[in-house]
Amino acid sequence: MLAITKTAALRGIEGIDCTVEADSSRGLPSFHVVGLGDCAVKEAGERVRTAILNEGFDYPKGRVTVNLCPAWIRKKGSHFDLPIAMSILVLAGAISQRHLDRSLFIGELSLEGKIIPVKGILPMLKDIGEDVSRVFVPKDNAAEAALSLRGKGTEVIGVERLSDAVDILKGKKGYEKVRAAQDAAYDPIASPDFLDVRGHWQAKEAIVTAISGGHGLLMMGSPGTGKTMLAQRIPTILPDMSYEEQMETSMVYSLTGALDRDMPIMTRRPFRKLSPRMTEAGILGGGNEPMPGEASLAHNGVLFMDEFLEYPRKTIDALRKPMEDKKISIMRRGVSYIFPADFILVGATNPCKCGYYGDPQKVCKCSQLELERYRAKLSGPITDRIDMMIELPRIDYESLTVGSSMSSKEMKERVEAALDIQKTRFAGCGISRNSQMTEAMIGEFCNLGKEENSLMEKAYAKYDLSPRRYFKVLRLARTISDLKGVKELDTMSIYAALNYTKFLNVYDRDMSE
What we know:
Largest sheet: 5 strands, parallel
CATH class of the largest domain: Alpha Beta
Structural class: alpha/beta
Strand content: 15-25%
Helix content: 25-40%
Strand order of the largest sheet: 11-14-17-10-18
CATH superfamily of the largest domain: P-loop containing nucleotide triphosphate hydrolases
């Protein structure tokens, strides 16, 4: 006798339709599962058998064989328990095959028959076929599943026990359809306000520019100048996410099990703070069965790397490709796993090992060799992928005690106004921020007048700008112009963009002469 149940498998962040086939035949009592399952799948036999018996159902006698199709895709996770159990219940006569038609099952079973929540519901259900009209999931995953299936007309049924699923299939028990909210409410974050930061007007302006255009930012300064304090307030000015962005980010968090009944979707942009102890695999992701790292968890948000030059150079250089491609690809056993990684990189670092190189009040104790080794971690290729750098001086007493400061509310309003301009500009182009412009788009949206073109020509020749840096300066100048409400690029916007590339020493007012 053969029973077939629909379910889903995961490959990275991609959901794949999967079928569970179960067959019982004569022979000594045994359970075999085939189809490239991991340890959690192979251990399902004992969980399923015990759960079925504890729920009062019969278990088929003889040899039980379970096949997970397609057999060439590696399968991991305990969410195969419920579909395996449903197929075996058909073999035992508790339900018939027609009860399973057009239904899909996902869930882990406890030994007493409870259905336990699992990871990865969002990506698993994102692209299920039209032949599925009902989805049975753990009750704690039901809200998450409903969001994934919003607008598809597929019923989502949250169940707590194996017996509940059987009773619903046989019509003995009613159920309540889980409906997704039309709009996920924005979840404000409690964070310190930029209003508390005295002085540092240039740093605040740089942060607004970076967030508005999606530009990478490196802050350099002596200990105590306020680098981390400024970065910790960035979440308060991040723009609200669209529903599409919420879903993209939530799928990554679903894989890690960070979503639950109370938070089925990410409603605010992520802000991931790292320390130099973080490994390369922790940042980029990895493992025998690859999982997303911090770079992917920062998708559509900010990746903040404190003490940037304390990281090993290999770890810093590993960010080059994700920053360029906006995704991370990991190969395992000939299979490519792709995770999204479209983040804004914000780094904070001391200028040298002791932290006081160039400080007007404290003497640097680093030797020239130590200074060169420290700065060498910021290689040319990674520097070319960071759009902005600012130096944070110590604020004077007057700035500390007198005068007002720009608040997070004011800064966020400027960010959102600049983003509205960019959305209008790039309507139909497939991008939403200036940092995403291709060279062809730069030619269209960054028209240079005679004076501006002459300025860029001098900068390109005098400071040996790479083509990548040249185009990054124009993208940055476009964002600065948007913040000023200027339609065309002007020389002051270009000067400001060059000023943010101080690690190349390109800001020079004499270029205009």
